[in-house]
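User: tokens in, sequence out, please.
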């Protein structure tokens, strides 16, 4: 799940694209991980008080965004089976296939055509298609290298910004 982040107020000059990754990955350049030791999964927030503090607020926003992305890719894989084989193509072709599938999806939604795949997601906020988890890369173990310091500072600036907006 790659998301482009542009933070013009950030003094760390970390502008680019980042994979939103789970806590099994290190928070390092190109990978934006949640805070460890703080609740993360949406289920943990459902029957609990509102997220408190910058780390919980960040983890909640991070988990919510990852959930939407996973659900979307899961449904796109159900709808267009070629999405399951995207890794066998060159990266520039992969991105074109994904953009084309998203454009087709948006056309269907805007046209008001019934879409049984996304209808299930519309009805059930907790539904994540099994296809969303298929063919995921192996987890990269966290490292304690100094490469992570820049991303940790960047994540901290995002967390502070999220906490201050309420």
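Assistant: Sequence out:
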């Amino acid at each position: 799940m790659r998301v482009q982040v542009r933070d013009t107020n950030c003094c760390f000059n970390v502008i680019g694209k980042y994979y939103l990754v789970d806590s099994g990955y290190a928070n390092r350049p190109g990978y934006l991980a949640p805070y460890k030791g703080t609740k993360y999964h949406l289920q943990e927030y459902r029957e609990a008080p509102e997220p408190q503090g910058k780390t919980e607020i960040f983890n909640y926003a991070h988990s919510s965004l990852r959930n939407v992305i996973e659900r979307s890719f899961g449904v796109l894989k159900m709808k267009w089976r070629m999405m399951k084989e995207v890794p066998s193509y060159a990266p520039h072709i992969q991105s074109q296939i994904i953009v084309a599938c998203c454009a087709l999806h948006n056309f269907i939604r805007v046209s008001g055509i019934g879409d049984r795949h996304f209808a299930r997601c519309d009805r059930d906020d907790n539904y994540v298609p099994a296809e969303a988890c298929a063919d995921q890369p192996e987890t990269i173990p966290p490292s304690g290298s100094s490469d992570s310091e820049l991303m940790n500072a960047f994540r901290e600036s995002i967390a502070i910004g999220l906490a201050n907006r309420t």
